[in-house]
């Protein structure tokens, strides 16, 4: 069944509860054992956990490195502080605050709400900029922009003393912490955990992760990565805003330096160490790094004690000095990037592990495979396609036509332009001339994800699976998209497709663990889950032996019948092509040189010459 | 000069090349033909040090060079003109040639540059032009000339006629002929089997990663099931189509 | 009008340093696709070197070459210790590794020297000005601009006229093909880091002369400027990096002079706003890298 509530909602809730209980208990035990300053340490750690979880929602699901979240935290922190601090205090510190803010008096909860809302709105605007530049220059540009954001907020905070109290004085609630109980922190932490896991399992989260794994393949499956990344950004900023506000409340004060480079690096190290793709990892990272830092701090002091037992570390004084914590953080970050970039937990999640343990017997493998009749009115027509790469003419007036339910082959020697033609049809490459229509609808020049949603789905010559996702999750990505955009078509069941593709036994294995043949089959199933009018397969048997190719013939035919799709397939293996195609086009030098039934084309001397080459002119 | 024994190379789970044996003697022109994805490029890239084989050995002039880096191999005298040419499009023709000669002394390089300008007049005309503006045929000549700049003893070429119009294919094969007349030792992968067999002393036919036939050019040309071999291959490795789907 | 010219010169003076920093960043990015967030550390190390030397009454004449040498050595050391191990890694890994390096260098200075600001004397001529007509020009700006122009010319010659420069450019375009020509990957990467260190060193000399102090986190500011400028100019283009650096310097100075006094302090903020707008409307940067198309 799809989607699966137990796995996507039930277990994450259970898992989050367990994580929360374990994490908090561990912290409380530590606090009880050490007493004194440990209480503050634990409170700080719990708040850091909220912030790190917020960052994980973005970095983990999109794969984009962001430094800006602490900048967003700064914004949230200041909004919260300015609204939550009592007017009497404000009049002392920032009497000239703009917009009459020094007199404003609102309850703390309202201040928190304002902080979250305002910061999310700003995040939306920044997110648009990220999307635009990221699309052009890649993730590197997005990261630098987030870094710039961090610096801007710091600059503004430092240079706007009327509002922020400036770099030295800052804003104050009162001396000491303004937070009297930990209850809000516990609630926020639990909420952050639940949100992080639910988002990762949600449609948006899964599509974002697919785009993280392979951006092009995701787009070819109808995913618009920019939308999903924006959603992840807004969710994450909301959580970070809550955490930042609580941090300010707990500190009882706010200086620009509190939400700057050091804090950004600290939260990042915690996330990296735990495993950026895992919510559980985020918590583990926070715990490990807090403990490590504390240990480093104590080692750095003279007179080192563990649980009240003094240790003499004089011989190592040259290492164990003040500020050892910072070295520890730096070495942790560098060390993990050099030797274990995936972090301690990689993308392991507690609730998924629990769900696997509690599986109630094997799922039923579907055996009743229905089939869908193709819609005869839908025809794929590509005509007059010209593509020039610089000086090189890759396609010259090429075109292909496929009727509903037909299997059409594209053959030709290396460099003939077959993949380029498919790239044009699926929107990956833009043509200089020519049109592509599907069922009368003009798709020329449309974005790959729009073309996929319109019903043209492709596979890739060089395998492009979502490696970290399981077989099932790979297929579910397409199913999600189809459910939204192709609901007018009968949609095949995910399990049916996996079974029909012959990879049922691997359904819960990660895609990157599959061998080559099964990977190809998975690609096919994933494409089929979009319920397309046409499947465009780019060399599906490349790398397969003769026997495997024959199996693939069956698979393709079966899959196409199951979903009522026509097929356009590029391949070199004429045995495969003749076994499956109704008609064949032969390309050479960017032009169609022959078209007809397999027998006709194979016997065509032009085709033979294209493959073998012509003799030199005598 | 070059000897390959039992060479096996994998791409992840696929064996792109299985147990290949091959040898090229001094002064010979040897062809490597076969359908797309048969493993021809994989073989060349393994010999050239770009790929590491999982089994087998490569020896050059009697010395085992299996797994040696491309930089080191070039200095031993083994040059590769890669598939799709891979000339440096932002560098000028002269600079492309110059970098081809990075391993020889400046004096020799200077002499070679003059030589190339003479032997490849079309390059001489476009000496200062950025290589990206060359036509396909000119680019191929540049790629070959660039490889010659390192004074190689064995030149390997990967699909020199790829993507060229028939007229330009003639030019390329004429070039190969003239190099052969000068006594150059060459190992050439070609899709254009007919032309290759005319020019080669010997050839190997690859299919699905294995050597399935070998003989002199005439012997192979005489076989009438050659087309069958080519189109039924399927392929044991990856095929690299021009304009592959790297996006943008 | 006078003010405008004054601003232009100021802006070019600042922009020169940014251009050098950006170029250093771009050189490494071209070859390794790595954005070196540790680029500023050369200046931190340089700063402490100057401080150490000044404590021993050495003059700036000795300090200048020392800064440059130390910068090159630091750059090479960082490559050897950290970056060589992550070659070919994902962008994410590369970015975080360079941050990790920054963090480690920062914390080492924090640990073994001090968190406090260390000051040293600026050279006496830094504050001097001279007049040209109605203009009051800082000697410092003049020196910076002249030295930068000379450095850029020298770097251009290095890249265009030497085999090393040729190898660097070829490797930046197609690393594997360069190896096939016999270019040794280790040599070219080390060379890039040495060149980057040299550029950072020269920029660092002027940065430190103006700052007159150093602190463990001194590297953050120059790094950010360099990286932003390289991005503004268009990542992947050396020319773009230089243009981006000058553009950034000019923008800073011109904005500051145009903004009303009350918010002049927020100049940095407005500069970033401009940059953000640039990325929204022209994400590829100022200089479009017009590649001759591949055949």
Please write out the topology.
The complex is a heterotrimer of chains A (618), B (248) and C (295).
Chain A: H1 5-34, H2 38-62, H3 68-84, H4 87-93, H5 108-137, H6 139-158, H7 161-164, H8 166-169, E1 171-172, H9 183-201, H10 203-213, H11 215-220, H12 225-251, E2 253-254, H13 261-274, H14 279-300, E3 304-306, E4 309-311, H15 324-339, H16 350-357, E5 380-389, E6 392-402, E7 407-411, H17 418-425, E8 433-438, E9 441-442, H18 448-454, E10 456-458, H19 471-485, H20 494-500, H21 516-528, E11 534-538, H22 546-563, E12 566-570, H23 574-580, E13 583-588, E14 591-596, H24 598-603, H25 605-612
Parallel strand pairs in A: 7-12, 7-13, 10-11, 11-12
Antiparallel strand pairs in A: 1-2, 3-4, 5-6, 5-8, 8-9, 13-14
Chain B: E1 2-11, E2 14-24, E3 29-33, H1 40-47, E4 55-60, E5 63-64, H2 70-76, E6 78-81, H3 93-100, H4 106-119, H5 121-125, H6 136-148, E7 154-158, H7 166-181, E8 185-190, H8 193-199, E9 202-207, E10 210-216, H9 217-222, H10 226-231
Parallel strand pairs in B: 3-8, 3-9, 6-7, 7-8
Antiparallel strand pairs in B: 1-2, 1-4, 4-5, 9-10
Chain C: H1 2-32, H2 41-55, H3 60-81, H4 91-112, E1 118-119, E2 129-132, E3 135-138, H5 139-161, H6 163-173, H7 175-180, H8 185-211, E4 213-214, H9 220-233, H10 238-258, H11 267-281
Antiparallel strand pairs in C: 1-4, 2-3
């Amino acid at each position: 069944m799809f989607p699966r509530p137990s796995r996507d909602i039930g277990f994450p809730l259970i898992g989050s509860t367990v994580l929360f209980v374990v994490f908090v208990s561990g912290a409380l035990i530590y606090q009880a054992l050490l007493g004194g300053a440990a209480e503050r340490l634990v409170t700080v750690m719990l708040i850091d956990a909220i912030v790190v979880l917020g960052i994980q929602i973005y970095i983990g699901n999109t794969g984009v490195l962001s430094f800006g979240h602490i900048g967003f935290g700064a914004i949230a922190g200041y909004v919260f502080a300015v609204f939550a601090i009592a007017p009497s205090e404000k009049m002392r510190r920032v009497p000239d605050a703009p917009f009459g803010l020094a007199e404003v008096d609102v309850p703390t909860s309202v201040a928190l709400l304002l902080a979250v809302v305002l910061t999310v709105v700003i995040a939306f605007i920044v997110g648009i900029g990220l999307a635009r530049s990221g699309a052009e220059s890649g993730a590197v540009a997005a990261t630098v922009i987030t870094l710039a954001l961090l610096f801007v907020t710091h600059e503004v905070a430092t240079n706007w003393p009327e509002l922020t109290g400036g770099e030295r004085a800052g804003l104050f609630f009162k001396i000491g912490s303004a937070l009297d109980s930990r209850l809000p922190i516990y609630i926020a932490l639990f909420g952050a955990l639940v949100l992080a896991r639910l988002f990762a399992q949600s449609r948006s989260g899964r599509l974002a992760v697919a785009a993280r794994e392979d951006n092009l393949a995701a787009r070819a499956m109808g995913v618009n990565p920019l939308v999903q990344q924006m959603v992840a950004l807004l969710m994450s900023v909301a959580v970070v805003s809550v955490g930042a506000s609580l941090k300010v409340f707990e500190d009882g004060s706010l200086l620009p330096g509190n939400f700057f480079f050091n804090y950004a690096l600290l939260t990042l190290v915690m996330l990296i160490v735990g495993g950026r793709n895992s919510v559980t990892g985020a918590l583990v990272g926070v715990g490990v790094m807090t403990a490590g830092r504390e240990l480093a701090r104590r080692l750095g002091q003279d007179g080192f004690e563990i649980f009240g037992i003094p240790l003499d570390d004089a011989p190592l004084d040259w290492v164990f000095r003040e500020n050892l914590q910072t070295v520890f953080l730096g070495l942790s970050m560098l060390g993990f990037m050099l030797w274990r970039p995936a972090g301690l937990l990689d993308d392991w999640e507690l609730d998924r592990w629990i769900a696997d343990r509690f599986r109630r017997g094997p799922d039923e493998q579907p055996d009743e495979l229905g089939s869908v009749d193709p819609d005869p009115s839908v025809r794929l027509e590509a005509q007059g396609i010209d593509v020039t790469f610089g000086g090189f003419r890759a396609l010259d007036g090429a075109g292909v036509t496929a009727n509903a339910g037909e299997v059409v082959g594209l053959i030709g020697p290396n460099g003939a332009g077959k993949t380029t033609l498919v790239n044009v049809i699926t929107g990956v490459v833009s043509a200089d001339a020519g049109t592509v229509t599907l069922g009368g609808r003009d798709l020329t020049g449309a974005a790959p994800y729009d073309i996929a949603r319109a019903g043209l789905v492709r596979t890739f010559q060089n395998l492009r699976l979502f490696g970290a996702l399981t077989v099932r999750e790979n297929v579910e990505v397409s199913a999600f998209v189809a459910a939204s955009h192709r609901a007018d078509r009968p949609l095949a069941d995910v399990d049916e497709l996996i079974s029909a593709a012959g990879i049922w036994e691997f359904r819960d294995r990660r895609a990157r663990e599959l061998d080559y043949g099964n990977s190809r089959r998975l690609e096919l199933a994933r494409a089929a889950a979009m319920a397309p009018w046409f499947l465009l397969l780019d060399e599906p048997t490349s790398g397969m032996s003769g026997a495997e190719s024959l199996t693939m013939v069956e698979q393709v035919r079966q899959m196409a019948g199951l979903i009522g799709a026509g097929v356009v397939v590029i391949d070199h293996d004429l045995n495969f092509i003749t076994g499956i195609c109704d008609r064949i086009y032969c390309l050479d030098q960017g032009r169609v040189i022959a078209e007809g039934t397999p027998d006709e084309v194979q016997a065509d001397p032009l085709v033979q010459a294209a493959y073998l080459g012509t003799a030199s002119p005598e | 000069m070059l000897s390959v024994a039992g060479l096996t190379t994998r791409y992840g789970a696929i064996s792109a090349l299985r147990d290949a044996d091959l040898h090229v003697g001094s002064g010979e022109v040897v062809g490597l033909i076969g359908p797309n994805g048969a493993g021809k490029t994989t073989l060349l890239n393994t010999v050239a040090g770009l790929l590491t084989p999982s089994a087998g050995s490569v020896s050059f002039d009697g010395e085992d060079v299996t797994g040696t880096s491309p930089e080191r191999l070039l200095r031993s005298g083994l040059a590769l003109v890669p598939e799709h040419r891979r000339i440096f499009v932002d560098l000028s023709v002269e600079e492309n040639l110059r970098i081809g000669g990075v391993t020889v002394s400046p004096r020799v390089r200077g002499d070679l540059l003059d030589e190339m300008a003479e032997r490849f007049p079309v390059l001489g005309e476009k000496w200062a032009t950025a290589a990206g503006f060359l036509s396909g045929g000119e680019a191929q000549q540049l790629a070959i000339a660039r490889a010659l700049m390192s004074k190689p003893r064995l030149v390997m070429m990967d699909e020199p006629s790829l993507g060229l119009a028939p007229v330009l294919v003639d030019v390329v094969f004429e070039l190969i002929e003239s190099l052969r007349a000068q006594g150059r030792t060459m190992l050439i992968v070609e899709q254009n089997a007919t032309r290759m067999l005319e020019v080669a002393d010997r050839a190997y036919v690859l299919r699905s990663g294995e050597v399935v036939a070998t003989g002199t050019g005439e012997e192979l040309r005489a076989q009438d099931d050659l087309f069958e071999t080519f189109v039924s291959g399927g392929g044991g490795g990856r095929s690299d189509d021009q304009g592959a789907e790297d996006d943008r | 009008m006078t003010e405008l010219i004054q601003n232009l010169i100021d802006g070019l003076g600042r922009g020169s340093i940014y251009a050098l920093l950006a170029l250093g960043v771009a050189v490494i990015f071209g070859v390794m696709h790595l954005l070196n967030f540790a680029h500023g550390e050369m200046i931190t190390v340089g700063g402490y070197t100057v401080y150490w030397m000044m404590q021993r009454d050495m003059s700036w004449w000795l300090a200048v070459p020392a800064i440059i040498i130390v910068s090159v050595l630091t750059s090479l050391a960082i490559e050897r210790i950290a970056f060589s191990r992550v070659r070919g890694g994902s962008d994410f890994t590369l970015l975080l590794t360079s941050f990790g390096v920054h963090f480690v260098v920062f914390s080492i200075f924090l640990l073994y020297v001090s968190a406090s600001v260390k000051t040293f004397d600026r050279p006496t001529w830094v504050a001097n000005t001279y007049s040209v007509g109605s203009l009051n020009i800082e000697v410092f700006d003049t020196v910076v601009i002249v030295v930068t122009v000379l450095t850029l010319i020298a770097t251009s010659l290095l890249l265009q006229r030497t085999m090393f420069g040729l190898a660097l450019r070829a490797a930046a375009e197609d690393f594997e093909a360069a190896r096939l020509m016999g270019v040794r990957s280790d040599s070219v990467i080390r060379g890039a880091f040495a060149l980057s260190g040299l550029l950072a060193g020269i920029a660092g000399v002027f940065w430190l002369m103006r700052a007159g102090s150093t602190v463990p986190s001194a590297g953050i500011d120059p790094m950010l400027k360099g990286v932003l400028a390289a991005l503004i100019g268009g990542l992947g283009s050396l020319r773009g990096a230089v243009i981006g650096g000058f553009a950034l310097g000019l923008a800073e100075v011109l904005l500051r002079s145009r903004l009303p006094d009350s918010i002049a302090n927020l100049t940095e903020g407005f500069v970033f706003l401009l940059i953000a707008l640039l990325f929204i409307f022209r994400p590829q940067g100022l200089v479009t890298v017009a590649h001759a198309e591949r055949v």
